[in-house]
Protein: Helix-turn-helix domain-containing protein
Amino acid sequence: MAGREDARGQRTSGAGGQAEWARELLEHLRPAGRDPNRVVAWLAGTAHATVSLQDGTGRLLAGTRVPLDEALVADVTSGRIASAALEDRGRHLRLVRVERSRPAGAAVLAVVRRAPFDRDVFEIVTHAAQVVELLLAGHESTAAGLRLRRATSDLRLAILQLLMVEDTVSARRVAAGLWPGLLDTDTACVYVVESSPGERDRLAEECVSATGERALVVRCPAVDGHVIVLAPRDSAGQELRALVGRRPGVFLGGSARQGLARTAAAYGQAVSALAVARFHPDKAALYSERTRPERLMDPVGLHDWTAGVLSPLDTLSHHTRAELLATTRLGLEFTAVNTAKVLGVSRNTVRARMDRVESLLRTDFADLTVRAAVHLALNCQVGLAEPPPGAGARAGAVRLTDLLSGTALRTWAADLLGRLDADGRDLRRTLRTWIAAGGNAERAAQKLGMHAQTVREHVRRAEPVLERELLAAGSDLYEVVLAHLATGALDEPRLHGTKPGHPDSPVHE
Structure:
């Protein structure tokens, strides 16, 4: 009867023993078991040895650290010798070179035993080293792939951020290296695809596949569940709609076609359309599918009013003006933190830029009517590629009340706000008071004599009725504010330090 040690010895000898350890070693190449640490642990148990895997600098990669002669390790890792075997103070040592990618450099597999190495153990060590080499190559290839994907993702985001601040020349230059021809266009649509944060990475890859890599697909840096797609081709919208249609819990918002320099405005449009998509049965909506108040205004008057509102910025350099306008446009749509993430700057930078615009316009962005008016001007400024015929004659003389007095716009405003009348809780009064209070539920509650939470619930209840997001400041809220201004429910905002209705009168007499 063989003892335990004898039985272990038999495991590594003969054709049957070789077949067994070879089968066990091959198991480590299966997808579920590809781990160099497990191979090193298996080798230690099979060869009854202490096993160490380290690189040329002595850094332990797997196994148990053992004292090794540095010169000998250097000879092996440098390729001067492929392997070494020696006996040192009762220890039997075997060193085998393990190839790795060139930047990482070769590693050395060291096996230390009390018993001498016989032919079978030598063979086990040699084959184990080959398996470790394969696994390291696979891991390094996977890591390199991850680094490449991360770098590509960062590059896509950098291109988007350049477009957000209207630097189309730099954006095209950066994109040309990896995606030739992608931005060889004057216009594009921006889409925002929404999913759960956990599904976002997979959704981004599906967006790349759906658009045939002929679109700029970016994981939104501000909202974890959003994927931003800038698509020059018209067919991208249908491709993304088909993707959303077969994915539960996924929604799509798309912008109108805009010039590349108007990417920030297109992004805001897409986010606004996304809010509508959540209420649509097909889970998708385009910005152009909804009547916008600026479309109902006199285009010549709107152009001249916009020129007057933004005229204090005309003395700035083109780059500074574009930077301030792009930041303000996004800052009026989103929080300073999210705007900073989208643009790749600090939130203090966002606040400083918006403070500068606020100072130049001599107004107060804490007032929702002011924010809505400036947002309207910014949208008009980016939406008109060419001034309409007859524009420019009345710059600075057109008032916002003139723009809001048209029959079509008043009808639109009355129809929109009239949807709230069917609710017995007087949502219309609550919403009007909440807007007048700057979107502050506590101040509105004090004026209404109700709890702040009730104010929030009323505002939230109004969202599906109006098909617009209100609690998150942005295009939807500003449209509702303009509707209140058009019906006379709110006073005209103060711009350029003027009293309502008097563009040339100072606020302080």
Residues 119-164 form the longest helix (46 residues). The chain has 20 helices and 13 strands. The radius of gyration is 33 Å. Residues 1-13, 498-509 have pLDDT under 50 and may be disordered.
